[in-house]
Design brief:
Length: 158
């Protein structure tokens, strides 16, 4: 099982929109160029990902001047597993991709182990929302800001 850049970049881009689109009470669309610059993801790659995310209803596009993308639903309703599924990312840990034909059309000896792992991964990703990631990022930012404001104290050991 390997989560490719497609899944990682899609989650990163969705989190970027969640963190940057809310400006006070106003929700402002985020351009793919802004995401590309901040996250160092190719613009053409983002365009491909966002076509899929839009089809799933995870983002909505705003046309015209000041246009871009907004999240398609509240951040506490967007599970990471939904994003992964939207970009057609396969996260199954089985060699046969869950079909049970691992070994010459037969189920391999360890199929149930890897199938169970796949279910655990899916449950884990479906149990985390963009809201959870936003909260963690905000906590990190607040801690960094606090630490940056604290003067360093040199402690000598006698």
């Amino acid at each position: 099982m390997k989560l490719t850049s497609k899944g990682r970049y899609a989650v990163t881009a969705m989190l970027d929109i969640a963190l940057h689109s809310q400006r006070g009470e106003i929700e402002m669309p985020i351009t793919l160029a802004e995401i590309s610059d901040r996250q160092q993801i190719s613009l053409s790659y983002l365009e491909q990902l966002f076509a899929k995310l839009r089809r799933y209803g995870l983002v909505k596009s705003v046309r015209g001047p000041g246009g871009g993308y907004l999240l398609g639903m509240p951040i506490d309703k967007i599970a990471i597993g939904m994003i992964i599924a939207a970009v057609n990312e396969n996260i199954t840990a089985t060699k046969c991709k869950g079909k049970g034909n691992c070994q010459g059309g037969m189920t391999c000896l360890t199929h149930s182990l890897w199938a169970q792992l796949s279910e655990e991964i899916e449950d884990f990703l479906n149990g985390i929302t963009i809201a959870d990631l936003v909260n963690k990022q905000n906590q990190r930012s607040a801690l960094k800001k606090h630490l940056d404001q604290q003067p360093f104290q040199v402690v000598s050991r006698a």
